[in-house]
Protein 1
Amino acid sequence: MKVSALETISLLLAPVLVSGSPSQNVTQVSIDLLDANHILHLLEVVDAYGHISVRNPDNESQFIMSFAIAPASATSQTLVTYDISNATPLHLTFNESVVGEDIPPSFSERFIHSQIYAAQPNVTSVIHSHTIEVLPFAAVGVGLRAQIGSAGSIGTLTNGTPIFDFNSVVPDDSDQLHDLFIRNPVLGDALSRTFEDGSDIVLMKGLSSYLECFE
Ligand SMILES: *[C@@H]1O[C@H](CO)[C@@H](O)[C@H](O)[C@H]1NC(C)=O
Ligand SMILES: *[C@@H]1O[C@H](CO)[C@@H](O)[C@H](O)[C@H]1NC(C)=O
Ligand SMILES: *[C@@H]1O[C@H](CO)[C@@H](O)[C@H](O)[C@H]1NC(C)=O
Ligand SMILES: *[C@@H]1O[C@H](CO)[C@@H](O)[C@H](O)[C@H]1NC(C)=O
């Protein structure tokens, strides 16, 4: 079910107005982040599984992302502040007294976000989506190339956007969950190294995923 624009606004504003302890910067990026969650849902870029995050404007060593909930349902009360160094949930962004096991479960793929922020200090936002339409491109090894000016972030690299294949990463002891899902720093680091100058996007082979970073 889609959330109407009016519902989106009320979902967003009601909790922001009652809490209010975070800084103005954090409040502003949280509003943008929630708008982004709802717009990406309305445009069907993310379904139940995609996620978007932002770097904490007050602390470059942290990022903000919803706990594991469909983007359409994200509100200020579902936002969590994470430590970039280990993707640990620190506290609810709008209630710092909610910590540890009181924070609802996080997306297992949050290492996509933490490792990209760690590797690329100038990246302020990361989107990860399971986009069926781009699945065949990664499967046959054809990267995307911008065909119109407004698609500039796709880039115009000769071989198209880079393609990440978890099978190309040599597993190590800290990488026990070595599969399509980026659930540990080893795979997250390998993915973050796949980005190339000239393209803010990486296709992920086999996961129908598509990533974009904003600087
Ligand atoms: C923050 O969370 C605590 C613990 O759940 C709760 O008692 C308190 O009312 C919350 N504060 C706000 C402003 O929501
Ligand atoms: C809030 O954002 C402004 C503009 O980006 C920045 O100059 C300022 O340092 C930020 N405040 C904090 C506390 O980080
Ligand atoms: C910034 O975030 C890091 C990682 O969570 C933390 O160790 C550090 O204390 C924070 N800095 C400030 C000034 O809060
Ligand atoms: C952002 O940082 C990465 C890694 O340090 C670098 O390769 C890239 O050129 C930078 N992009 C911009 C626009 O500065």
Note: The CA atoms of residues 53 and 65 lie 5 Å apart.
Protein 2
Amino acid sequence: MQITNKKKNANRMRHGEVVKENVFEDGVVPLRWLAAALAACGAALGVALLVDARLPAPLGRDAPPDRFIAEIAHEHLVNLTSIGPRVAGSYENEVLAVRVLVEAVRRIAAQASPHNVVEFDVFSASGAFSLTFLDGMSNMYRDVQSVVVRARGAGGRASPARSALLLNCHFDTVPDSPGESPHTAAAAHSGALFVIRYRYRIVHAI
Ligand SMILES: *[C@@H]1O[C@H](CO)[C@@H](O)[C@H](O)[C@H]1NC(C)=O
């Protein structure tokens, strides 16, 4: 009994008051940690500003086609975000966003050089997974759509390894978002990357 009390006291000194079994009150964050967090945020901001200042100038459509053309990426982004918030399962996400993506892929495929093949598919998947986030939560989804595009070189020897480089992102957003997310930007960039690739003979499938 005495040992347990000692243990309890030691825990209390380390963690603060017991809220419930094995859960201790967190206490106040010491000022030096707050100062360290502020300094870390300031340093991260400084690095971000430096990197931002060194970014190359965005290119327009008149740039050589083997470069990353920011104007096209921005247009993909505008086309997708002008739909507004796209919650999984909503008309905006399942019908309008899929339509924008499929139309963009069709345009890319139509302009592809004869050396390359651009194929696409829209498929639905259902499943479930659990996360240990917060108190733990289970995620279930049914008939969530994906737009899959594969670009590869036409003809030639078939590659024995059925491998490809996967560029992957989700295009849905949370309900109160402005319709933009880092993943939407990734979708736009993938589209622009595709535009770079399909003009040349693709050696490795994407
Ligand atoms: C954006 O949408 C417009 C209207 O549908 C279309 O003409 C244009 O080609 C699209 N842009 C891209 C990069 O797909």
Note: Residues 72, 75-76, 79, 104, 107 surround 2-acetamido-2-deoxy-beta-D-glucopyranose (CB under 6 Å).
Protein 3
Amino acid sequence: MYFKIITLHLLVGALTITAIDLDVTGEWKTDLGWEVICTWETWRNDTLQSVRLYNNGQQFMIYRPEKHGQSRTEIFRTPEKIMNVDCAITTDKGQKGRCILILEPYQPPLYDFTYTCEVSGERPMFRMGKKDFHVRVLVPPSNAELTVITSNDPSSPRVTLNCSSSGLPAPSLQWTVGDNKVQADFARRGWNGTSKLWQSWSSFTYTRSDPTQIVACTPEASSNSEIIRGKKAVLHI
Ligand SMILES: *[C@@H]1O[C@H](CO)[C@@H](O)[C@H](O)[C@H]1NC(C)=O
Ligand SMILES: *[C@@H]1O[C@H](CO)[C@@H](O)[C@H](O)[C@H]1NC(C)=O
Ligand SMILES: *[C@@H]1O[C@H](CO)[C@@H](O)[C@H](O)[C@H]1NC(C)=O
């Protein structure tokens, strides 16, 4: 039984090696959004027929050099996002080329998505390559930034701190004094349309007593039931 499964995998692997070579990579770009790049390379004696792009299994663009020429660029707008696609071939018959997708969110994205690139060669071989890329809605929380909000009375033992971090989904900010978790006085978050990230901030007021005590603020985000922490900020008061 196990043997059969292994053989099947090996077979699939062998078949994809003889098909079109395809690679899809993606990353979050500061102040821009996600950039996903599909690159391909067919056999030298093959000719590119088409490149199809899919979002969650739905085709949203096709590029055919025969019809569109050396490149095709398209912009797709929805109320939530703008998708900019630029496909181009770098060899005569399209044996090599790439499609760059830039996905700029206008509103906080909620769901992960799968981007698929499918490259097909011309007859008589009709070779094909297809690859998925999972885009996770996650930009880990930035390092916490702690500031002391100056009080009107410098001799007062009361200190108010402000902590902030940005990310996607919105980071929550956890305060600790020494080893103890403490409750923030209040927390806010706002969507920043320039960075396309949530900016969270939280303030905490406490009374100085033990000078050896350390106050820390740790940004945390939860994604697919995983907790991702940003670098905490600490203050010795
Ligand atoms: C195309 O090239 C590959 C090697 O890159 C070769 O194995 C294959 O036989 C060639 N096919 C034709 C139809 O020339
Ligand atoms: C705390 O920091 C955030 C982000 O830098 C800022 O928007 C907010 O006004 C600050 N809050 C206070 C009370 O200063
Ligand atoms: C929004 O993000 C931009 C770019 O990252 C940054 O310069 C700006 O200060 C942020 N605005 C707020 C209100 O945090």
Note: Residues 53 and 117 are 5 Å apart (CA to CA).
Protein 4
Amino acid sequence: MGLLRLVLLGFAATGAEGAACNPVDSCPQLSDGLYCPVNDVTEHADINRDVALIKSYLAEDPMNYAMAKEVYTMGNFSSKGAGNMRTLQDLALKDMTVSGKYTNVFYSGALSLYGSISAIWHDYIIACLDNTGMCKDKSDSFRQYVINKALIGVVTAYATYEFGAAVWKGANGETADGQAAYAWDEGAAFYIGNIAPVVGDGITGGAPGNLYSPYEFNWKRDFDYPDGTNTHAEAVKILNYGLINLRGAAYNGDNVKAAELGMYKIFSIARNPQRHQVC
Ligand SMILES: *[C@@H]1O[C@H](CO)[C@@H](O)[C@H](O)[C@H]1NC(C)=O
């Protein structure tokens, strides 16, 4: 008991390292059932449940903007331990390079385009929740659309932050499963989520529609292009490849960077405006 408490305190104090699963293949899986995390990243994946909850408040009649805002700012499903919640607002306002420590061109490109962290997603979300700024007197469906899509963007960006952290940790010799691989697992968890699909196996066929993760967003767009590469299914292979190349003696920095770039490409394809026109 005393020892356990000490160990738990140690985790709470550093907060940075994962608890690698023992045995290694015993971790809870994500919605796809094929990515193999080596850390328990359930709470990280749970942020997608907040996205789903906000969507359900915005589906009420009349739309419940107040409760949607409460979930955005205070969180609901995703705990960081010790009574602290991980919130979508925290994610949106995160400096995703940590003052340039982690390279993340996906995020720094967005930052230079929009000019400030809050201007990327947060200002739009708040304006549409509050009926202010660019959302003032817009229709409910306009505000709902902006909020729902922006939240997917926030979670996608946060996945790139975790990938950047994993790249940095790997390059700095932190290749134990609770180190770089933990950051990579977190990125996969944010991207895929862990809601059980209401139909199907979580990767083949049509998108189940209840995952509310960036992965499902990619999947829906894949369905518009039945003859093209299935980006959501490809992403799972890239994520497993990145993870394998971060673990201990198997560490290979070039391969990890290639996996990170592969994920950037998946995100960019999903956001191609040509693709958006068909939805
Ligand atoms: C989470 O949301 C549910 C409603 O779906 C609510 O009943 C519950 O109190 C909320 N929990 C927290 C911690 O905000």
Note: The CA atoms of residues 1 and 270 lie 49 Å apart.
